[in-house]
Design goal:
single chain, mainly beta, four-stranded antiparallel sheet
Length: about 120
């Protein structure tokens, strides 16, 4: 049974930083694309950033230059480093692990709140 466990969320002031982690069980991590999604109250879930099995990354425009996605295949863990956080970054952040056509798994989510 594959499980994804997110951690690292919390309350932070505007301009602050957080690093989210997503730890995966099983042996398919290194073959998967890892993505961080977020969902704010009353809004649809959106893809924030992802990283392919070969290490290619992509970001939504609103976080470019502020966030960095990375992965450590030796630890089966993906990360999202978030800097210069803004109130509009407030959301539940979800980790996603997939290989298109083969598998997709979600974590339980971690709350990020940016407020003074």
């Amino acid at each position: 049974q594959v499980q994804l466990v997110e951690s690292g969320g919390g309350l932070v002031q505007p301009g602050g930083s957080l690093r989210l982690s997503c730890a995966a069980s099983g042996s398919i991590f290194k073959f998967s694309t890892l993505g961080w999604y977020r969902q704010a109250p009353g809004k649809q879930r959106e893809l924030v950033a992802d990283i392919t099995s070969s290490g290619s990354t992509s970001y939504i425009d609103s976080v470019k230059g502020r966030c960095t996605i990375s992965r450590d295949n030796t630890k089966n863990t993906a990360y999202l480093q978030m800097n210069s956080l803004k109130p509009e970054d407030t959301a539940v952040y979800y980790c996603n692990m997939k290989r298109t056509g083969d598998w997709m798994y979600w974590g339980q989510g971690t709350q990020v709140t940016v407020s003074s």
